[in-house]
Amino acid sequence: MAQERFRAPLAVFIIFQKEDQIWLQRRANTGYRDGEYDVPSGHVEVGEAMSAAAVREAKEETGIDVLASDLVVKHVMYNNIDSTYINVFFLATKWGGEPSNAEPDKCDDARWFRIDELPQPIVPHVGLALKRIQENVFYSEEGWTK
Hints:
The chain contains two helices and eight strands, in the order E-E-E-E-H-E-E-E-H-E. The chain is globular, with a radius of gyration of 15 Å. The protein is 16% helix and 34% strand. By secondary structure, it is α+β, with helices and mostly antiparallel strands. It has a single domain, classed as Nucleoside Triphosphate Pyrophosphohydrolase, CATH 3.90.79. Strands 1, 2, 3, 4, 5, 6, 7 and 8 form an eight-stranded mixed β-sheet that branches. The mean pLDDT is 95.
């Protein structure tokens, strides 16, 4: 009998950075890590490309239109902190307009923060990914018992 293959959900994260600042939003009323800061993010839907999911999530959460061609993968994380996920962090290299809180029912604060003075608390795997990006680490496995 063949062993069932492991499957992990896939999530995308979009980093909007200008100079030494990064756009963060505080989760609220979602049931997951409410009160913690996060970058715009979401699940990849069945049949959807990761870059398309990132474009969609950027628009839904910040009101910003980003082209898939203006997204660069900065970090891939195999995460087992809360549950097992494959997380892909994209840097938006250019976009039009200014990000805003486009989902006030799911976010109670959204603004620019200095990358070296991130607010606390921050979603743990997001904070780790931002640190790994600063260290120029492209791939990490976080939360696994070694």
